[in-house]
Amino acid sequence: MNKSATIDFATATGAQDLTSPAHTQALLDLVAGEARDSLLGVHEVLRRELPQGRLAIYEAGGGSSSFLPMDVLGRSHVTVVDIDEDQVRNNTYADEAILGDVQTYRFAPETFDVVICYNVIEHLPDVEAALLNFRDALKRGGMILIGAPNPRSLSGVVTKYSPHWFHVWFYRNIRGIKTAGLPGEAPFPTFFHPLVTLSKLEAFAAAHGMETIYRREVESPRYPEMRQRKPLFAALVDAGAAVMNAVLPRGTDVRRGDYHVILRKR
Ligand SMILES: C[S@@+](CC[C@H](N)C(=O)[O-])C[C@H]1O[C@@H](n2cnc3c(N)ncnc32)[C@H](O)[C@@H]1O
């Protein structure tokens, strides 16, 4: 491990409090809709494909809440690497929390059963380096779960081409997250490397010894969230999306703002 180049915050070492709401918060925070359905589908795949017994999990850009199912977390040793000191300090579920850059941080080969990189690759200038690090750190047959925005969707295009202050405004005023943009709080600056596009990501993975075993593009959870919180604003956005869908090639749905993909190391 590259520990000399990083600071370790061994927060919450060892004992995981399984009654802590932090374990399920990520799922609970998702309003009912396609994104939540897909995350539940991801949980099923993980339960089916993971080996029995203790698991070693690497959450890359882990932040402070996990997207793993509780029963998997309960039998896992979780290592989080995050570049943000506040995110590392706020982490409640990791057995080991490391301040580091997932693009450069190297673990010993074949250390982990699963790597999770959820809502992170859009923030990385060098997605190739991160993916190759993840692959190398995985055991043979191990899986990478990636959750990311679809750059070709309405929300993807707006996020990619709007300034960071607009993202903060959206989080505060539309999502109602008053702490948005404060140190250690989302939204984080985005980069949108070309590999964030799902088809390119899958092609890169296939060329580097990984196969896709789950993929689903979903309506961004921001839509059901907006419909609940800001119905008028949501109606305007939905109308705009419907117009775009009508003029774009058949089958396009610009609302599909996010995806989940699971890659398995061959
Ligand atoms: C949008 S948050 C997602 C956090 C968590 N995975 C989740 O979905 O709740 C993005 C996270 O990636 C982290 N991050 C961004 N660039 C990073 C890098 N180069 N190395 C490690 N972590 C990074 C940020 O600090 C932040 O915690």
Shape: globular
User: CATH superfamily name?
Assistant: Vaccinia Virus protein VP39
Distance between the termini: 23 Å
**What ligand species are in this complex?**
S-adenosylmethionine
How many structural domains?
1
CATH-defined topology = Rossmann fold
Number of helical stretches of at least 4 residues: 10
Q: What percentage of residues falls in helices of 4 or more residues?
A: 25-40%
Q: What is the mean pLDDT?
A: 89
Descriptive overview:
The protein is α/β, with parallel strands linked by helices. The chain has a single domain (3-152, 189-219, 256-265), classed as Rossmann fold. Helices cover 37% and strands 21% of the residues. The chain has ten helices and eight strands. It has helices at residues 22-29, 34-49, 70-73, 85-90, 127-137, 154-161, 164-173, 198-207, 222-229, 231-247, and strands at 7-9, 55-60, 76-82, 96-99, 112-118, 138-149, 210-218, 258-265. The chain has an eight-stranded mixed β-sheet, with helices on both faces. Helix 5 (127-137) links the parallel strand 5 (112-118) and strand 6. The longest helix is centred in the C-terminal third of the chain and has 17 residues, at 231-247. The two termini are 23 Å apart. Bound molecules: S-adenosylmethionine (SAM).
